[in-house]
């Protein structure tokens, strides 16, 4: 496989399914950037692979599975943050009563 040099890839939110909202928490913004970076690297890898010796399908599937795990981890973190906020609000209401 050939070495892939860093290259500038324009961000396309519609194709990656990511929004460019700046209202997210710092951790969700970092996770979004990590997802974007992973997608950029994956696309660059596919664009620059040798057509006569394509990437091993097992490696490709492994990378996609890792990306899915990243997405699930980010979603779990957001869910936990939302639950904590709800619990904090509930405790605040009970203390003020």
Helix and strand element order = HHH
Beta-strand level of the residues, as a percent range?
under 5%
Average pLDDT over all residues: 74
**Low-confidence parts, pLDDT < 50 over ≥5 residues?**
4-22
* Category by helix and strand content: mainly alpha
Number of helices: 3
If you compute it from the alpha carbons, what radius of gyration comes out, rounded to the nearest whole angstrom? 19 Å
Helix content: 55-70%
What about the largest sheet?
none
How far apart are the termini? 66 Å
Structural notes for this entry:
It is a single chain. The chain has 97 residues and is mainly α. The protein has one domain. Helices cover 68% and strands 0% of the residues. Helix 2 (26-47) packs antiparallel against helix 3 (57-96). Mean pLDDT is 74; it is low at 4-22.
């Amino acid at each position: 496989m050939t070495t892939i040099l860093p290259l500038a890839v324009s961000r396309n939110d519609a194709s990656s399914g990511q929004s460019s909202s700046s209202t997210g928490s710092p951790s969700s913004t970092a996770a979004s950037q990590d997802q974007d970076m992973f997608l950029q690297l994956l696309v660059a890898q596919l664009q620059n692979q040798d057509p006569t010796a394509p990437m091993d399908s097992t490696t490709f599937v492994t990378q996609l599975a890792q990306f899915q795990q990243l997405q699930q981890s980010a979603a779990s973190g957001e869910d936990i943050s939302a639950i904590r906020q709800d619990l904090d609000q509930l405790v605040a209401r009970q203390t003020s009563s």
